[in-house]
Task: inverse folding
């Protein structure tokens, strides 16, 4: 059977996971305007933007021969819990004989998840699955960490584009790994590569740090979020996302990481679970403020109810915590030039007020 998955973040790791389990893998293409157009054509108009991108991406995977698509879903008030079923039905209606396997919630439907897991596992032994999971999770977390570091360095690089190329080379090194020892070697090589990037010296107080929060899919997938981290770095700011796939796995499967603490910070502003990552997002804004960040970009997919609610409380959070927040609505109609102008203006305002503050303190 030919396995595929949605294009989200560093897909090399998912490809590796399936290959190590002995599956034939169909890597979906990175989302483009064609993906969005295809998804929009085959989706209800009121569906949220990530639904449409996934729809287009699944069709492209089916065009390449995918027979099983494995993805995560959701539960609770957000509509993500219905999406796997709707996607599968639409794919059947347009003529693709494909099965969509969705892991909705690890904690809520253990029995269902075990049977899906056994199906994917096939004849592979449990010992091998555990070994593969360890290798892939280490890769995932390493790459997340390097991704974070790269976006701290990129604004100061002497030769534009160096950090991006280094990250691509790091990804290539990890793609060659099949054992934990090879992953450890790739890790040390990656550290050396990052340390060799030539950067301008900038005083700490002059550095501008921007956090990126919002719905998980648009925050992680750069092809549909105006390459937000690179865009901010090109404007001279360090950028840090609130969500990384490795952290999501750590929290959802092992209960690790800072998510509980972040949710606690968000609970002050959104008391109940309203779906998606709304609570986490407002918590992250408070956290960025406490960590001395200069601003936050909030990415809100069109028709996303959880993010619509968080958008309504953001002005108060921004005022109480003294941190500016720019909300960008993302959908199939998003004009790139318009959004870029807004981001540039936002960064200019932050830079000017920071300069004034530094001058006043001297
Ligand atoms: S969080 Fe928002 S964008 Fe994401 S699936 Fe739910 S409703 Fe859609």
Result:
């Amino acid at each position: 059977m030919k396995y595929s998955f949605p294009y989200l973040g560093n897909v090399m790791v998912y490809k590796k996971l399936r290959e190590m389990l002995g599956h034939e893998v169909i890597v979906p293409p990175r989302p483009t305007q064609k993906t969005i157009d295809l998804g929009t054509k085959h989706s209800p108009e009121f569906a949220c933007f990530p639904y449409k991108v996934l729809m287009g991406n699944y069709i492209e995977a089916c065009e390449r021969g995918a027979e099983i698509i494995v993805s995560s879903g959701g539960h609770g008030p957000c509509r993500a819990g219905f999406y796997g079923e709707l996607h599968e039905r639409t794919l059947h209606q347009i003529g693709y004989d494909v099965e969509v396997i969705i892991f909705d919630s690890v904690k809520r439907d253990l029995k269902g998840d075990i049977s899906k897991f056994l199906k994917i596992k096939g004849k592979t032994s449990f010992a091998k699955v555990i070994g593969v999971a360890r290798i892939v999770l280490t890769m995932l977390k390493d790459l997340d960490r390097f991704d974070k570091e790269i976006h701290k360095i990129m604004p100061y690089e002497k030769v534009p584009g160096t950090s991006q190329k280094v990250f691509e080379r790091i990804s290539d090194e990890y793609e060659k790994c099949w054992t934990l020892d090879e992953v450890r070697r790739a890790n040390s090589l990656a550290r050396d590569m990052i340390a060799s990037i030539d950067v301008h010296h900038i005083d700490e107080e002059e550095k501008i740090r921007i956090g990126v929060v919002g719905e998980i899919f648009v925050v992680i997938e750069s092809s549909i979020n105006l390459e937000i981290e690179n865009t901010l770095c090109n404007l001279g700011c360090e950028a840090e996302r609130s969500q990384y796939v490795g952290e999501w796995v750590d929290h959802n499967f092992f209960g690790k990481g800072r998510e509980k603490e972040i949710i606690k910070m968000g609970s002050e502003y959104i008391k109940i679970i309203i779906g998606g990552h709304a609570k986490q997002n407002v918590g992250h804004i408070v956290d960025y403020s406490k960590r001395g960040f200069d601003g936050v970009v909030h990415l809100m997919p069109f028709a996303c109810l959880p993010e619509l609610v968080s958008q309504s409380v953001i002005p108060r959070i921004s005022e109480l915590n003294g941190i500016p927040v720019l909300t960008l609505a993302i959908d199939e109609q998003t004009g790139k030039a318009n959004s870029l102008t807004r981001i540039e203006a936002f960064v200019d305002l932050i830079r000017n007020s920071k300069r004034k503050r530094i001058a006043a303190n001297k």
About this structure: The two ends are 67 Å apart (CA to CA).
